[in-house]
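Worked example 3 (structure in, sequence out).
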């Protein structure tokens, strides 16, 4: 996998090598850019695109707001992802937070925060 920031080939390392602890997964890493992405379990399949600190933090925030939609069982996971596609105007292949850039993360964070504010008002 090529680093999207410097376009050089990334390193493929185990979580044990990277974190000093085995999380049962691997990572694609670019040291000069401090960019990385984890893989699905112990595979070489990346969870998204490689990200630097700022983008990693935005994706974390987006996930922490998005995941409760389906984890709370208010809607199914597939329905939540269909909703994500619709509000972000993306295909099912594109509608994954691991693929989002910073602007897309900021957009979904805004939409989800507004949604939760509205839900709170309805309940109050
Ligand atoms: Zn790089």
């Amino acid at each position: 996998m090529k680093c999207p920031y410097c376009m050089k080939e990334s390193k493929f390392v185990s979580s044990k090598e990277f974190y000093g602890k085995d999380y049962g997964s691997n990572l694609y890493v670019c040291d000069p850019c401090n960019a990385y992405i984890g893989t699905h379990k112990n595979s070489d399949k990346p969870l998204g695109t490689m990200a630097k600190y700022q983008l990693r933090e935005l994706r974390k925030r987006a996930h922490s707001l998005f995941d409760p939609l389906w984890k709370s069982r208010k809607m199914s996971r597939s329905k939540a992802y269909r909703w994500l596609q619709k509000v972000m105007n993306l295909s099912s292949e594109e509608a994954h937070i691991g693929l989002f850039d910073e602007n897309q993360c900021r957009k979904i964070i805004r939409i989800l925060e507004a949604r939760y504010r509205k839900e709170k008002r309805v309940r109050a």
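Notes: The beta strands are 11-14, 26-30, 35-38. The mean pLDDT is 96.
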